[in-house]
């Protein structure tokens, strides 16, 4: 996993609440057995017209957001299915940071495990607005801040996840260090 | 201090704990299916890792399987995904109920059916509806593929202690009101993110009186309220259901039963939050929008923008109704449907099929409607055929299929065409869930059957079937 530290980028504003993972990556694209190549299918139903041409009205198709690494959205982002294909597709498309007032639990975990920084920020609507106005945001994980349009906001993150992200650790290798504890548990319980 | 079942099961499974860190939890049962596992197995192979406890893992094929003719898998990518699961199970020694196996079925139907699901266990699966198993008093939750890989290699997960929530269903359910209506009413009342960050325990008279199948329907949709897990304290009903199941050793039953019942929440235990709903405010439910909270009682109307104060909610309503092609304020009973799907891990068990059969017995599917029944497992299918339910459905004009997820997510050939409407007993009405452009209305099996007969949403209580 690539370490996540800081970045500055334009903000793609997805001004919708309760965006579910069926929208982020529709089921017809879940059949691949690889982790890669999902970006082309991101928000497929919204991004493309029925005939496969890009839907010009959808915000991600706007040229201003072509290279955005930050996505800002409404509350309860990533609800529904546990499919990790959702963060894989966001990442493959080019997003490294997602800012929303709240996230669904499984989606949030899935982001962390893939080195995507999901930021719970009460002021997410102001970041969405800044995105609409073509402004950029600077995100710094070490200091836990989002700066944009002259404001700097602090965000909370579990210290454990923060360490994982900053260092790009592989969680399974860490857990292997607890082999004794796992074996002891198995001897007494299972 | 009195403890909730949530705390008891959690504490029982802590392998390692340290301040300012999630707990390392032991996982008793890992269920696996073909869609969310291939990348996890590939991860093991790439790093030369093994499956730590194949004996605590169990796999099935459900999401992609054909329900018409098992021999014909038209989509080569679906076929590859299923073959990959079979190869992975073989390579790593994991038991598999493949497409032709008598134990095959939707992963959340077969776990309980086989008795793999038991009170007090920690159960995970790369699938958000793993919450279903909570009906037995197991702490069961959905995980992503990275976590699947983590469980495969370590049989543990790092988890932060959740907050606890009680959802109390007080009083007695009215005539013709089912478990599905209860959970849809809960989600509609409290919202799709009410449970985020919590594990929910369902309590109250109405829950206690439910059968295990009904409890599974309720727990199944916990995730639709944002809760990763939802459970119900075990009681006699729970223990009775598990008697003589394949994975419950008969000679240890009494001993196990005592242990199971000991997990129940103790009198006076405190939750971080309690929500209450009265059974008598619940009527048969129909969703009209594009998430499971957007639903109304059958006698009500589609809401109007004035019903909401928040702008984001007004906007969401507008988007949902545009997608669903419905107008603000229209009566639910005016919505006409073209498809009926009875199936999915929410409502595909024998009790669900009986409830639907009772409504359609001696009647015909409306001429504008295509209706299918997809039993949740091979076992359910056999049982239904033994009881003659298949004949009742077929006589009415339903198609009788093989078991699988089918039209719940339309990953196989069972798809609702764009622009058409489906009365579905599944759990998600998201845009495109049953096919690109398809419109889904979530209902109970009895309400789906009523809609099949009349071609539109109809109050099943007025159909003279409960006499
Ligand atoms: S029936 Fe539907 S919700 Fe249940 S596991 Fe299958 S796809 Fe998921």
UniProtKB/TrEMBL annotation, chain A:
One of its GO terms (biological process) is L-leucine biosynthetic process. Residues 1-123 form the Aconitase A/isopropylmalate dehydratase small subunit swivel domain. InterPro entries: 3-IsopropMal_deHydase_ssu (IPR004431), Aconitase/3IPM_dehydase_swvl (IPR015928), AconitaseA/IPMdHydase_ssu_swvl (IPR000573), IPMI_Swivel (IPR033940), LeuD (IPR050075). Pathway: Amino-acid biosynthesis; L-leucine biosynthesis; L-leucine from 3-methyl-2-oxobutanoate: step 2/4. It catalyses: (2R,3S)-3-isopropylmalate = (2S)-2-isopropylmalate. Its EC number is 4.2.1.33. One of its GO terms (cellular component) is 3-isopropylmalate dehydratase complex. It comes from the Bacteria. It holds the Pfam family Aconitase_C. Keywords: Amino-acid biosynthesis, Branched-chain amino acid biosynthesis, Isomerase, Leucine biosynthesis, Lyase. GO terms for molecular function: 3-isopropylmalate dehydratase activity; isomerase activity. HAMAP family: LeuD_type1. Catalyzes the isomerization between 2-isopropylmalate and 3-isopropylmalate, via the formation of 2-isopropylmaleate. Belongs to the LeuD family. LeuD type 1 subfamily. NCBIfam families: leuD, PRK01641.1. Heterodimer of LeuC and LeuD. This is 3-isopropylmalate dehydratase small subunit.
Automatic annotation (TrEMBL), chain B:
One of its GO terms (molecular function) is aconitate hydratase activity. GO terms for biological process: L-leucine biosynthetic process. Pathway: Amino-acid biosynthesis; L-leucine biosynthesis; L-leucine from 3-methyl-2-oxobutanoate: step 2/4. It is an enzyme of class 4 (lyase). InterPro entries: 3-IsopropMal_deHydase_lsu, Acnase/IPM_dHydase_lsu_aba_1/3, Acoase/IPM_deHydtase_lsu_aba, Aconitase_4Fe-4S_BS, Aconitase_4Fe-4S_dom, IPM_dehydratase_rel_enz, IPMI_cat. It comes from the Bacteria. Residues 7-455 form the Aconitase/3-isopropylmalate dehydratase large subunit alpha/beta/alpha domain. Pfam families: Aconitase. It catalyses: citrate = D-threo-isocitrate; (2R,3S)-3-isopropylmalate = (2S)-2-isopropylmalate. Binds 1 [4Fe-4S] cluster per subunit. Its EC number is 4.2.1.33. PANTHER family: 3-ISOPROPYLMALATE DEHYDRATASE, HOMOACONITASE, MITOCHONDRIAL-RELATED. Catalyzes the isomerization between 2-isopropylmalate and 3-isopropylmalate, via the formation of 2-isopropylmaleate. This is 3-isopropylmalate dehydratase large subunit. It comes from Jeotgalibacillus alimentarius.
């Amino acid at each position: 996993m690539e370490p996540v530290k800081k970045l500055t980028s334009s903000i793609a504003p997805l001004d919708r609440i309760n965006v579910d993972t069926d929208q982020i990556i529709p089921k017809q694209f879940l059949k691949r057995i690889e982790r890669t190549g999902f970006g082309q299918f991101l928000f497929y139903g919204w991004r493309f017209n029925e005939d496969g041409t890009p839907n010009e009205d959808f915000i991600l198709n706007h040229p201003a957001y072509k290279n955005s690494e930050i996505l800002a959205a409404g509350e309860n982002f990533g609800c529904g299915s546990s499919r990790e294909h959702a963060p894989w597709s966001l990442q493959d498309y080019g997003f490294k940071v997602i800012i929303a007032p709240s996230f669904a639990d499984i989606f949030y975990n899935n982001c962390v495990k893939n080195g995507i920084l999901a930021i719970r920020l009460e002021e997410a609507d102001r970041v969405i607005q800044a995105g609409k106005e073509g402004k950029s945001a600077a995100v710094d994980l070490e200091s836990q801040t989002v700066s944009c349009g002259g404001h700097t906001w602090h965000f909370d993150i579990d210290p454990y996840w923060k360490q994982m992200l900053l260092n790009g650790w592989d969680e399974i290798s860490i857990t292997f260090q607890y082999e004794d504890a796992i074996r002891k548990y198995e001897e007494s319980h299972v | 201090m009195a403890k909730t079942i949530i705390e008891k099961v959690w504490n029982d499974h802590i392998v390692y704990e340290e301040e300012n860190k999630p707990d390392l939890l032991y996982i008793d049962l890992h269920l696996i299916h073909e869609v969310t596992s291939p990348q996890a197995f590939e991860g093991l192979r790439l790093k030369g890792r093994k499956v730590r406890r194949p004996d605590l893992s169990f796999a099935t094929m459900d999401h992609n399987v054909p329900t018409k003719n098992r021999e014909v898998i038209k989509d080569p990518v679906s076929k590859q995904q299923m073959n990959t699961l079979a190869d992975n199970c073989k390579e790593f020694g994991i038991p598999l109920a493949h497409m032709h196996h008598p134990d095959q079925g939707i992963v959340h139907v077969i776990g309980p059916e086989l008795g793999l699901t038991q009170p007090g266990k920690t159960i995970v699966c790369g699938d958000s509806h793993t919450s279903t198993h909570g009906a037995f008093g197991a702490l069961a939750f959905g995980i992503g593929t990275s976590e699947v890989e983590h469980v495969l290699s370590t049989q543990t997960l790092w988890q932060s202690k959740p907050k606890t929530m009680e959802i109390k269903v007080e009083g007695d359910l009215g005539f013709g009101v089912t478990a599905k209506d209860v959970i849809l009413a809960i989600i509609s009342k409290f919202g799709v993110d009410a449970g985020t960050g919590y594990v929910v325990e369902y309590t109250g008279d109405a829950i206690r009186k439910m059968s295990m199948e009904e409890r599974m329907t309720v727990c199944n949709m916990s995730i639709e309220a944002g809760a990763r897990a939802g459970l119900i304290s075990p009681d006699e009903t729970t223990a009775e259901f598990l008697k003589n199941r394949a994975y419950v050793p008969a000679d240890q039953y009494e001993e196990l039963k005592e242990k199971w019942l000991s997990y129940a929440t103790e009198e006076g235990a405190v939750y971080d939050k309690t929500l209450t709903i009265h059974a008598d405010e619940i009527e048969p439910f129909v969703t009209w929008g594009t998430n499971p909270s957007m639903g109304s009682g059958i006698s009500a109307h589609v809401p109007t923008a004035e019903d909401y104060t928040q702008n984001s909610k007004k906007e969401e309503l507008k988007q949902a109704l545009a997608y669903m092609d419905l107008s603000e304020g229209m009566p639910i009973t005016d919505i006409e449907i073209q498809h009926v799907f009875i199936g999915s891990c929410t409502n595909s068990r024998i009790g669900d099929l009986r409830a639907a059969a009772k409504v359609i017995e001696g009647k015909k599917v409306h001429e504008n409607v295509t209706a299918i029944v997809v039993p949740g497992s091979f076992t359910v299918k056999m049982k239904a055929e033994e009881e003659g339910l298949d004949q009742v459905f077929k006589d009415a004009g339903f198609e009788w299929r093989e078991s699988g997820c089918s039209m719940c997510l339309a990953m196989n050939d069972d798809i609702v065409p764009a622009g058409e409407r489906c009365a579905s007993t599944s759990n998600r009405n998201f845009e495109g869930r049953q096919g690109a452009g398809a419109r889904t209305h979530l209902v109970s099996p009895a309400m789906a059957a009523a809609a099949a007969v009349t071609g539109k949403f109809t109050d099943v209580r007025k159909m003279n079937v409960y006499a």
